[in-house]
Design goal:
heterodimer, A: Rossmann fold, B: alpha/beta, Fumarate Reductase Iron-sulfur Protein, Chain B, domain 2, FAD/NAD(P)-binding domain, 3 domains, five-stranded parallel sheet, binds flavin-adenine dinucleotide
Chain lengths: ~270, ~475
């Protein structure tokens, strides 16, 4: 059922796949994600639907642990065990006026459908996208096609502006901005939200908590938002960045650090044999 | 023959052994034991046991067949009303249902109906070597199809009846495996998954289709299902949304909902990590909050995951515990430490964000509340702390909300339950509901009963169009 139709390597450890998902592709909206299982004994991992086309969904992922390593090893024509979706609430797309989309690293892929939808709705879309260095740059053209203005940053200055997305954002905030959308590493989203809070600009952050079920029945993905516990999969993944307890989220993301290390090491040994 | 006053005991794995493995605890009756237990039934003319059973199994008849060692006819009698005796024989709260009303129980122990039920189910399982091939008489296909949401006991039993009536039945399940709580919630040592799989394979053989990885409300709405050609929809989506106490520190690392903990272990097989990829924390000092079946399952599972101390923290006394008696006894035998009349008020974490202590208050019992149970009242100034490295919150679950919020016109009750009448009719024509999504957390057998009732209503609706 879930055939990998196309696979592209976008950069170091960054992989794009188009997957056949007849039930999901036609109804997926920007901001939604899938949960997939790679093999019989596999775990369930969430990945954002970064694009769709007829019966195909596009995912872009970074190889960070066992499951993404196994996923990256699959080839065109291979099948995934399971894909369920679209999960989560779609991003709230309205005509806000002038908006900024801030994407960092792998988070730039899920920013794309949101920026595109915002542009289509008549917003003036400014995208700030940050990569580690030139080698990591991907989807720049797609983001350009979905935005009116684009600022590219790299940490080492090997491409675009040198610095973090927050450096670029700081300058942009001198203009009138109606809303900010941010997807990327949790620390980045925290810093973006701090900056915009100072100026009272509503900011939507798309959270990446750990997750198991994706339908609100396990509570793995709980986050604190405005003092209340919410489930990222069911109530989110978009939340008001000014209300999210990012520090708690960062700690929760590290719950299984030790187990993730064991998983990856075991896999590496297996692959070598 | 003189009446044997005590139930024939069922052999069990000894507590010291079983608390280190995930194998089933009670081992089943031998033929001799079963016949002896069956002969304790006096075949009384009123058979109150039948009215104590939510699906009205013809209990005296199947017990009589066991006594005569006619096991095929015993299973046939059972299957007329209950297609999952391997499940219900193991996990029904018989002491509150059929066995509570048993006449023999007035002079001694009631007949162990549950164990006899399990006996014939296991006999059939073994006879068929784990693959059931029973041909049921189907009437001519009507050409109409029904969509069922969720693959728990409510939908399973509903689908069988529909297929028997000649409808095509398609079950849509959000998870990648079927069975609902039977698969993701109840642990292997209480309900081996081979039994659930056996029943699901059987349903597939009967012609029920299963579509996994399909979350109704997100993948498609109920309205979409009608557009896809289904003539009626049954909602059996269960009560799976976990509740938390909303106390300080509840989001610290190492604190799980029972659903998360059990799903990781049962559905995702985290107890075999790293052979299976899903990780779980192996707590050494575990606090389980709650006093129901779910709490017992979580406590006993964490013991098997290697915990040295498992504290079961419950705010009322033992008499008020909603868990099945057998589970409470088993938990105690295995060394679960019961801390009754105790209620957590906050969790304390270490610098990395992992839980390291739980602070509790002692309670006393006051007046009876609406449920007829004595209300727990905190004793002021009785705070004390327990060192823990894991906590599992099992204080109940609510109906899953995804369907109710994505189905305009569906009437919902105060707790998020779908409102349905005794026949399973909801506020929308052609949409039926049953099981935990209607009643809130209840039992497997009531969910199965509701599924059957709804199947009959769906049949009427599709025939009469009303
Ligand atoms: C709603 C949602 C959408 C997501 N979309 C994407 C996406 O489009 N592309 C993508 O590459 N990733 C995405 N993620 C993150 C992705 O799910 C994880 O990277 C993946 O589960 C890692 O699995 P693994 O077994 O390879 O690594 P693991 O062994 O689980 O983890 C390895 C390392 O990655 C970190 N990590 C694990 N899970 C997460 C996470 N959820 N967020 C951040 N870091 C994590 C761990 O802390 C660890 O350091 C999304 C997460 C959520 C909740
Ligand atoms: C740990 C535990 C122990 C228990 N022990 C006992 C016991 O000993 N005895 C007893 O009688 N009862 C016990 N129960 C209660 C019993 O399991 C439930 O009452 C029963 O399973 C309810 O059946 P159901 O069919 O209504 O729903 P469930 O079994 O909850 O099944 C619902 C299914 O629907 C799926 N679903 C939900 N939403 C959607 C959607 N939108 N689209 C598609 N699929 C969806 C879910 O994934 C799930 O698989 C226990 C429950 C738990 C959690």
């Amino acid at each position: 059922m879930f055939k990998i139709v196309r696979k592209n390597i976008l950069g170091p450890e960054i992989v794009q796949m188009e997957i056949e998902a007849k039930n999901i592709a036609p109804v997926a909206k920007p901001g939604q994600f899938v949960i997939l299982i790679v093999h019989e004994k596999g775990e369930r991992i969430p990945l954002t639907i970064a694009d769709r086309d007829n019966d195909l969904i596009t995912i872009v992922f970074q190889v960070v642990g066992k499951t993404t390593t196994l996923l990256a090893k699959l080839a065109e024509g291979d099948f995934l065990c399971n894909v369920v979706g679209p999960l989560g609430n779609p991003t709230d797309i309205e005509t806000f006026g002038r908006v900024i989309c801030v994407g960092g690293g792998i988070g730039i892929a899920p920013v794309y459908p949101i920026a595109r939808a915002l542009k289509k709705k008549g917003n003036e879309v400014i995208s700030i996208i940050g990569y580690r260095s030139k080698d990591y740059v991907f989807w720049e053209e797609k983001i350009r096609s979905a935005s009116h203005r684009v600022i590219v940053t790299t940490n080492d200055g090997s491409y675009g502006f040198k610095g973090f997305v927050t450096d670029a954002l700081k300058e942009m905030l001198n203009e009138h901005i109606d809303r900010v959308f941010t997807i990327g590493p949790t620390i980045m989203m925290r810093e973006v939200s701090k900056l915009t809070k100072e100026r009272n600009i509503k900011t939507v952050a798309s959270l990446n908590s750990l997750m198991v079920c994706g339908m609100g029945m396990c509570g793995t993905c709980r986050v604190r938002v405005g003092g209340e516990t919410k489930f990222t999969c069911f109530d989110g993944p978009d939340f008001d960045g000014h209300l999210v307890d990012f520090d708690e989220l960062i700690k929760r993301l590290d719950t299984y650090k030790e187990e993730e290390r064991i998983s990856l090491e075991t896999l590496r040994k297996e692959i070598q044999i | 023959m003189k009446l044997i006053k005590e139930q024939i005991p069922m052999k069990e794995q000894p507590p010291e052994v079983r608390k280190k493995n995930f194998e089933e605890v009670p081992l089943g009756y031998t033929k001799e034991e079963a016949i002896l237990e069956a002969s304790r039934c006096i075949q009384c003319p009123v058979h109150p046991c039948v009215s104590g059973c939510p699906v009205h199994v013809d209990i005296p008849a199947f017990i009589k067949a066991i006594k005569e060692d006619k096991l095929q006819s015993a299973i046939d009698i059972m299957n007329e009303t209950n297609l999952l005796p391997g499940v219900t024989g193991r996990i029904c709260p018989q002491e509150d249902q059929c066995q509570a009303l048993c006449v023999v129980g007035k002079v001694g122990d009631p007949v162990s109906i549950g164990r006899l039920e399990r006996y014939i189910a296991d006999w059939e399982f073994n006879k068929n070597q784990g693959k059931k091939r029973v041909s049921i008489s189907k009437i001519d296909p009507t050409g109409r199809s029904v969509a069922l949401i969720g693959s728990g006991p409510a939908s399973l039993s509903c689908s069988v009846d529909l297929v028997k009536m000649g409808y095509s039945a398609t079950i849509f399940e959000a998870f990648h495996k079927g069975g609902g709580v039977l698969t993701y919630g109840i642990p292997e040592f209480r309900l081996p998954k081979r039994i659930v799989n056996y029943e699901i394979c059987f349903l597939q053989e009967l012609g029920v289709s299963f579509v996994f990885d399909f979350l109704v409300g997100r993948t498609a709405t109920i309205e979409d299902l009608f557009k896809r050609g289904f003539s009626a929809v049954f909602i059996g989506s269960g009560a799976g949304a976990p509740q938390f106490m909303r106390i300080e520190g509840e989001n610290l690392d190492g604190i799980y909902s029972a659903n998360e903990y059990l799903t990781r272990v049962n559905l995702m097989k985290a107890f075999k990590f790293p052979e299976f990829d899903t990780p779980i924390k192996k707590g050494k000092r575990v606090a389980v909050i709650g006093g129901g079946n779910v709490a017992m399952d979580a406590a006993r599972t964490s013991l098997r995951m290697g915990a040295e101390h498992v504290y079961l923290i419950y705010r009322r006394s033992r008499n008020e515990m909603p868990a099945r008696v057998e589970e409470v006894v088993h938990a105690e035998e295995e060394g679960i430490e019961f801390m009754l009349l105790t209620n957590p008020v906050k969790y304390i974490g270490d610098e990395k964000g992992f839980v390291k202590q739980v602070e509790c208050l002692r309670m006393t019992l006051g007046e009876e509340d609406a449920s007829g149970r004595k209300r727990p009242v905190p004793i002021e100034g009785s705070e004390f702390r327990i060192d823990i490295d894991q906590a599992i919150v099992a204080i109940g679950t609510l109906p899953n909300p995804i369907i109710s919020i994505t189905t305009p016109g569906l009437s919902i009750g105060r707790q998020g339950e779908i409102l349905a009448d005794a026949d399973g009719n909801t506020s929308i024509k052609g949409v039926f509901a049953g099981g935990d999504i209607v009643t809130g957390s209840a039992t497997v057998i009531t969910a199965m009963g509701a599924g059957r009732t709804a199947a009959a209503s769906i049949d009427r609706y599709l025939k009469e169009g009303s």
